[in-house]
Specification:
The chain is α/β, with parallel strands linked by helices and about 180 residues long. It contains four helices and nine strands; from the N terminus they run E-E-E-H-E-H-E-E-E-H-E-H-E. The longest helix has 14 residues.
Length: about 180
């Protein structure tokens, strides 16, 4: 039996700040609540879930050469996800603030970071050609330059008959852990 080819997930790896206030936020007000800090990003989350289901997975993306990038990378690797990272000194790792209300509904503020600056010539071509499946997130297609990198990755994987998916990203508080 041959070894399973990995799922490659290309896109965003962020540092997430999940905030669940105890009461409604009021302008100029102050309240208590729960905060959770963790690595996130829809592409990174998918790589983790694939790995947890027993599929070898590789995350490809760009992060800042900073502490948030180090922390998010360590969490991915602790889950058994192989990482192919491009480190940027010009752009920080993205940070996302997710405010979660009492019903579990969320509002997000996305601080775009290095993931929005991924270039086609930075892609690990061998990894993409060897993938069993390539996952692209919607975030990767919103604007250039990551759109050009995502389309180049799809072209590379197509040339090797890799399966591809670009479903909309779905996030729930439970998916972060």
């Amino acid at each position: 039996m041959s070894e399973r080819k990995p799922l490659v997930s290309l896109g965003d790896l962020n540092w997430d700040v999940l905030a669940k206030p105890d009461t409604m936020l009021l302008s100029g007000g102050d309240t208590t609540g729960r905060l959770e800090l963790s690595g996130g990003g829809s592409a990174a989350n998918l790589a983790v879930w694939a790995r947890r289901c027993g599929c070898p997975s590789i995350f490809v993306g760009k992060i800042g050469r900073d502490r948030f990038g180090e922390l998010a990378t360590a969490e991915l690797q602790a889950e058994g996800v192989q990482t192919e990272l491009i480190l940027s000194t010009e752009h920080p790792t993205g940070v996302v603030l997710a405010l979660i209300d009492r019903r579990g509904q969320r509002a997000m503020l996305t601080g775009q970071g290095a993931d929005w600056e991924l270039l086609p010539d930075e892609l690990p071509q061998g990894v993409l050609r060897a993938a069993g499946h390539l996952h692209l997130t919607a975030w990767s297609l919103f604007r250039d330059p990551p759109r050009a990198a995502a389309l180049a990755a799809a072209t590379l994987s197509k040339s090797s008959r890799t399966g591809r998916a670009t479903p909309p990203s779905v996030w729930t508080p439970a998916a972060s852990r």
